[in-house]
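Researcher: Let's continue the batch. This sequence belongs to Adenylate kinase, and it's 215 residues. Same format as the previous ones, please.
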Amino acid sequence: MRIVLVGPPGAGKGTQAAFLAKNLSIPHISTGDLFRANISQGTELGKSAKSYMDAGELVPDSVTIGMAKDRMEQPDAANGFLLDGFPRNLSQAEALDEILKAAGLSLDAVLDLEVEEDEVVKRIAGRRTCRNDSAHVFHVTYAPPKTADVCDHCGGELYQRGDDSEATVRNRLAVYHAETEPIIDYYKAQGLVSTIPALGEVADVTRRAMDALKK
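Model: Same format as before. Here are the C-alpha cells for Adenylate kinase:
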C-alpha cells in the first residue's frame, strides 16, 4: 500500500506511522529522517538543504520533493510506503501525484489524524524535558514526574522547551492550517481520505486506522 499520513502537530503522526508501517510491512518515510539522512550522507540534495537551513531559510519544495522521490525509488519501497510529513503543501501533493503517475503507480489512501486544537496545545505545551538528557520527556498531565520539575531518571531539572510553548504551538497550528490542511481537500476530491479520531490509547488509534485501510 502507498499511504500518506496527515494531521496537525501533536496528533501522534510519528507514533502511528511507526505502528502502521510495521503492521503493513512497508517503510515509514518521514521528512525529518530524509533530511537527516541526506545531510549526514553528504548527498547533493543534502548539501543543498543544509545551505538553506544554515542561512535560516526555508528549504525549497524542489529539494524536499527530490529527497522523497529518491527514497520512494529504493528497493524496500517497491511494494509500498507510508509518507509522514510529505507532502506538506499542495505543490508537493501535485508533485507526488506526478512522480507516482510516471511510475505507473498511485496512492491507495490518505489517513487524516483528527485532534481538536485545544488538545494539541495541551499535548505539546504540557511536555517537560530533562536538561541533563533530552531523551527523558514527561508530561504534566499524561506522564507527570514523581516530583514536580524533577527527572525521575537522573534528578535533573525538567523544563519546557521553547518550541513547546503555547504561543509556538499555536503558530505551528496556524502554519498547518494555511499550508498543509488544503491537501486534505485535494485528496478528498480523489476519494482517498479517511478521517481517524486520534484521541485515546495509541493502540486504539492504530486499530481505527487499520480498519479504515481494510475498507
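Researcher: Any comment?
Model: The domain at 2-214 is CATH 3.40.50.300 (Rossmann fold).
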